[in-house]
Amino acid sequence: MNLINVLIVDDNKNNLFTLHTLIDEYLEVQVLEADSGMAALKVLTKQAVDLIILDVQMPDMDGFETAKVIRSRKKTQHIPIVFLTAAYKSKDFQQKGYIVGAADYLTKPIDPSQLINRIQTYVRFIEQDRLHKTDLERKVAERTTELSKARDELERRVDERTAELLFAKNKAEQAQKTAEEANLAKSQFLANMSHELRTPLNAIIGYSEMLQEEAEDLRQEVFIPDLQKIHTAGKHLLGLINDVLDLSKIEAHKMDLFLETFDLATILEDVVATVQPLVTKKSNTLKVVHDDNLGKMHTDLTKLRQMLLNLISNAAKFTEKGTICLEVQRHGNDVCFCVTDNGIGMTENQLKKVFQPFTQADSSTTRRYGGTGLGLAITQQFAQMMGGTINVKSEFGLGSTFTLSLPVQTKTALTNTKSVNEPKNPVLLGTDARVLVIDDDISHRQLLKDYLSKLGYAVAVAADGTEGLTLAHKLYPDAIFLNVQMSDKEGWRVLSTLKNNTRLAHILTLIITTNEEDKQKVHAMEATDFLDKSAVRSQLAAILEKHHIGYDSIELVMVIEDDRVYRKHLTTLLENQGWRVLQAENGQIALEHLAKKKPALILLDLVLPMIDGFEFLARWLDNEKWYPVPVVVLTSKGLMSEEQAYLNKHVEAIFYKDTYNKDELISYLHQLIDNASASQKQDKTVLENYLEGTPQSVLK
Questions:
Q1: Which of 255, 538, 583, 598 could cross-link 506 (Cys pair, CB 3.0–4.6 Å)?
Q2: How far apart (Å, rounded) are the C-alpha atoms in residues 113 and 544?
Q3: How far, in Å, CA of 279 to CA of 63, rounded?
Q4: CA distance 435 to 510
């Protein structure tokens, strides 16, 4: 063990000599000397000292001042100080020493035995403290070694378990993928076979009706009951097939919404008239309660009718000599349909699976009441497609209550019935949609290109920002996948350039990154969305569907407005309706957009730089490809009679910025887009029928 260092400080050399000699004679310690306070402080900066014996009365810097400095320094503040002072000094004088940090006092003239005893006491204390610290350090080192071994063992076990879980996860994902692909193939097959399945069955039903009429005319009553059975069985089978095909089309993403505006009270009367025979078949009573001011609703009329018929017929099926109540109320922007019965009700276990396809309460229920168990499953899927919900409450033996809530105005974007957490499997697109991938990682760039190409997109790739911007100007893509983690922050420079270019700013920009801070920065720079680079493939399908990349232009609205703030306001308003928006700040840019994209509708301001609204309309009218696109004017310009007459002839409607009603504008745009959608689908159907060899459809 190293010797203990004792520093003696005294301006009297005789005292220094005496103290030094006594300590050397009786104690095994290292003695250091200083003849002033300043000299003592210098020694303390160079040497490690364990005990200080300090004279109080010294010139320049006395013992008290020296002690204050020693106590003020972090390195020396713990060293015990023993003051040397004359025996005649008062108690106040000694108290002052304790205040500045003295551990003890020794009086002059020096008593050798007293001096040695005091110093021995401190030396033993210091040695014990050293031993304690050494022992503590040894124990800490031993414990640290044990913890390190335990950590290594734990990390080894975690690695082994992680490998096992990863293997199990990959195996489960592969099994899930196989099952989903098989299920999707089944759903797509059934959805595509709808025509082949329904056509012969409709022929059977039609011929049975014709034969029944002929039997009645020929008074062959003996055949009529059998023909009625054929007709009834055919209708029943058609209903079952329709349910199966509807569910399959939903699962295969081939079920569309056909939105229209209608009077809600009128459709309720129609539903009640249709379902009344089924209700009275089991001696039930149907009670209808609704508000007087239900007003109009903008949604898929056919699917709403089917949902209400499913709910009421389901209630009638499980109720006998009871009461079924249909209550309809309007709550703000939603309409609530409530169907209540006092039939057999359901248990808690039955409630858990009531919306599962091909499921009824139990096998005995199926045998007694019949059916496929698809009606409620389809109703739930339709409700989700239309942006609504359906809930059920039931008590066994007392009855059930189904509550269907739907928005008054369904958004066209709400056509996907899958849960946001459910993996999506997009169908290959028959599209000319263009996608640009900008990434300096060659393997990741190629992976994205291969996957997007398989989905039907035309994919261009760029290995750096300069090439990417060149291709963006050249190709004018529908979407850009951009890796912002390219070298030298090139990705962020590209994003900034895109968003500050009026011709490119509207392009959907999808950021690829692994950094959480980047994901927050993405929104600040107005990028469209982001993907985690470590899981791009699993997220890609959802991103493509979420932003409708490559979808038909029926959901695309062009906004031509030079005021940036107002253009942004209109864009947000339209995007909230589920439409994609193509922005142009003047007529010239709008014409460039039209050369590459045909929107479903154009919202046009008249006062524009470069090419104003009237000149844009003139060029628009000269192009037969563009002319069918409806144009709605939204302007603050005061119109002269000649201008008003010109616009009335060539545009669908004129709205004024300072007086227009937002809801009226949105409702009118919905109507125009729905009409365009219906017309497009009708033209497609006529063409398909003609190609199938039924040209009579064209003549109707």
A1: 583
A2: 94
A3: 110
A4: 11
